[in-house]
Amino acid sequence: MPEAAIECARMPAPYLRLTGPRLDLVAATPELFEAELAGRQAFERLLGVTVPASWPPDFYDRDAIEQSLQALRADEAAAGWWMWYLLRRGESGEPPLLVGLCGYKGRPSPEGTVEIGYSVLAEHRRQGYASEAVELLLARAFAEPEVRAVLAETYPELIPSIGVLDKAGFRLSGPGSEERVIRFELPRESYVERHVELGRMDGQLREGPGERSE
């Protein structure tokens, strides 16, 4: 199993956090969902970020927040297996900026699968944030021995979303759980093989032209 290129820590409050090159992913809690429902100012204050006026992103509305809130209230220990907020770290003392969200659709199933999803605000797309978030979610999921595959569903016309999945190593596996939706799957073996190959490529690039390692 490749070493996960992430830091898993707790932010002051006690929010779970996954740390990538540019993003901090913060796991949603019932308190954060309640603040989000209360309004932008309450949400900004509790999360300690700047929330753009364009929030929320596509496919994330009040019903989705309320459903997620109910699920977490029923099982608060599963906080890391639901929603995660995408925070772009600020510079020169500026607060982080909320640019999207991602997450899992609950704990791993008895069959060892877990499903992920993601959505980035329109003005922050095509900057690699979704890909970075997906890699963090995958590293966290496959760190659990019982997870044998990660699933994702999208619409066939959402080409950028399919591009994110393809880049992460997912492959189309068939129809999804709803009409017009298609499903992608990334087995553990493919994830491990891909990261071993990426490690080899990274090592070759570091060697430079004309150099070979023994």
Notes on the protein architecture:
This protein has 214 residues and is an alpha+beta fold. Helix content is 34%, strand content 24%. It contains six helices and nine strands. Strands 1-2-3-4-5-6-7-9-8 form a nine-stranded mixed sheet. Helix 1 packs antiparallel against helix 2 (40-47) and helix 1 runs antiparallel to helix 3. The radius of gyration is 18 Å and the shape is globular. 31% of the residues are buried. The model is unreliable at 1-13 and 205-214 (pLDDT under 50).
How is this fold's topology laid out?
Blueprint: E1 7-10, E2 16-19, E3 23-27, H1 30-38, H2 40-47, H3 62-74, E4 83-88, E5 97-104, E6 113-120, H4 129-142, E7 149-154, H5 159-167, E8 171-175, E9 182-187, H6 188-207
Parallel strand pairs: 6-7
Antiparallel strand pairs: 1-2, 2-3, 3-4, 4-5, 5-6, 7-9, 8-9
In short:
The chain contains 6 helices and 9 strands.
- How would you write the strand order of the largest sheet? 1-2-3-4-5-6-7-9-8
Low-confidence stretches: 1-13, 205-214
N-to-C CA distance: 24 Å
Percentage beta strand: 15-25%
Percent range for helical residues? 25-40%
Main attributes of the structure:
single chain; 214 residues; alpha+beta; nine-stranded mixed beta sheet; disordered N terminus
